[in-house]
Specification:
381 residues, nine-stranded mixed beta sheet, 25% strand, binds 1,3-dihydroxyacetonephosphate, binds magnesium ion
Length: 381
């Protein structure tokens, strides 16, 4: 419908400066220029978190619109030229293919989009994270939309009291399922408590049927079949008037929860809420960061942003995140700081194992003959 508005957030890592810590200002300028030249958009805001560029765009063309995705793709390509010239780290890292096929999904960039009728007042928050994966939104989205200890609106706002529907993606088997909360809370938690596999893709109001939140669920490592960096997800949350208040949407980030990512995409660490200025992961390439930008939409115009986590009220969360980081770092290469073997994006295990294979013998092999037989058996595998 022509009168509906679409909010699209499309993001990619086009090259880090320095290493994987930040985005060079020339890349941000290039992205702004590319979007400004287009007549497809109502408005846009170019932001970044760590080494990821986030294109926040409003338009009237619906979700999965090929022209909008193409615009984002071409914008990232132009940024890649600059990144190559400056020899930025991992230039073009998230553009997995040279040819654009109509939709950036599955091609590297992360996407969160929603189409809705702009309300009388339309406050939205764009959450953007670096050094983690889409499942990182599971815990905060659950708290915002299902936990009355976080969101008092679930108890006292008549428009929220019936609860919300949660759409969950199985990112390994590429399936989805919808849960109705609060009645299916325990069923939902069985799945979303495993954020490496199940991610909340969207949340819908039961009172109006409208989409209230949407996240990016692309898993780069699985798509590419090789290490290309973490998924570094985004999430859009609409607020107020039957939806969580802005403060209810921000509240879950006061308790920095543990997420997968951090150094080499292979560690567990606390998700630290920070301002845009402090979204520069340095210590052990982290700890993982989250930024929250608030906008009031006015006929599609992005009024803002309000850089929410710049607030001193999040100082203590940052301090807690630093304390957790100190503790986890002392574990070095041991789990649970280092991720389990199957979740790591880097591993030398196959190479080390093949080199040492002949030294492994069956436990219980005693005599020289038994040892030789056990070695032979292993060597044959
Ligand atoms: P105001 O009275 O400032 O509009 O705030 C209402 C509210 O819901 C705060 O969460
Ligand atoms: P990014 O996914 O943010 O590029 O980080 C990759 C990495 O290896 C950090 O140590
Ligand atoms: Mg990077
Ligand atoms: Mg990144």
């Amino acid at each position: 419908m022509a009168d509906k508005l679409t909010l699209s957030v499309i993001k990619a890592d086009i090259g880090g400066c320095v290493g994987h810590s930040g985005v060079h200002p020339r890349l941000l300028d290039t992205a702004r220029q590319a979007l400004a030249e287009s007549d497809l958009l109502v408005d846009f805001h170019v932001a970044h978190v760590g080494d990821d560029i986030n294109l926040i765009m409003t338009h009237r063309r619906g979700v999965d619109c090929p022209e909008i995705h193409h615009l984002a793709w071409n914008t990232f390509l132009r940024c890649t030229e600059v990144a190559r010239e400056l020899k930025l780290y991992g230039a073009g890292q998230d553009l997995l293919s040279d040819a654009f096929s109509g939709n950036v999904k599955g091609m590297g960039p992360g996407v969160a989009e929603m189409e809705f009728e702009e309300r009388k007042s339309e406050p939205v928050i764009v959450f953007m994270a670096d050094k983690t994966e889409p499942g990182a939104w599971n815990l905060p989205l659950y708290k915002m939309f299902a936990d009355p200890f976080n969101t008092i609106g679930l108890v006292i706002d008549p428009k929220m009291h019936q609860g919300f529907r949660f759409e969950v993606y199985d990112m390994i088997e590429n399936k989805k399922v919808v849960f109705s909360l609060p009645e299916e809370m325990y069923d939902l938690l069985v799945f979303i408590g495993a954020p490496g596999r199940y991610a909340i893709r969207a949340v819908y109001s039961k009172a109006t049927g409208e989409m209230a939140a949407v996240s990016s669920t692309q898993r780069l490592n699985l798509m590419a079949g090789r290490y290309v960096g973490k998924d570094d997800p985004v999430c859009i949350v609409r607020c107020q008037n039957g939806l969580p208040a802005v403060g209810e949407a921000l509240e879950p980030f006061t308790n920095p929860h543990l997420v997968a990512g951090w150094m080499r995409g292979s560690h567990t660490g606390p998700l630290m809420p920070v301002s845009v200025a402090n979204a520069v992961p340095t210590r052990f390439d982290g700890p993982p960061r989250v930024v929250a930008l608030g906008f009031q939409l006015a006929n599609g115009k992005l009024v803002g942003p309000q850089d929410f986590f710049a607030d001193v009220a999040f100082d203590r969360a940052r301090q807690t995140a630093n304390e957790i980081a100190d503790y986890l770092r002392r574990l070095g290469p041991f789990e649970p700081h280092r991720l389990p073997l199957e979740d790591m994006e880097y591993t030398t295990m196959p190479e080390v194992m093949s080199r040492l294979r002949h030294r492994f013998i069956k436990v219980g092999a005693e005599t020289q003959a038994e040892v030789a037989a056990a070695r032979e058996e292993l060597g044959a595998k």
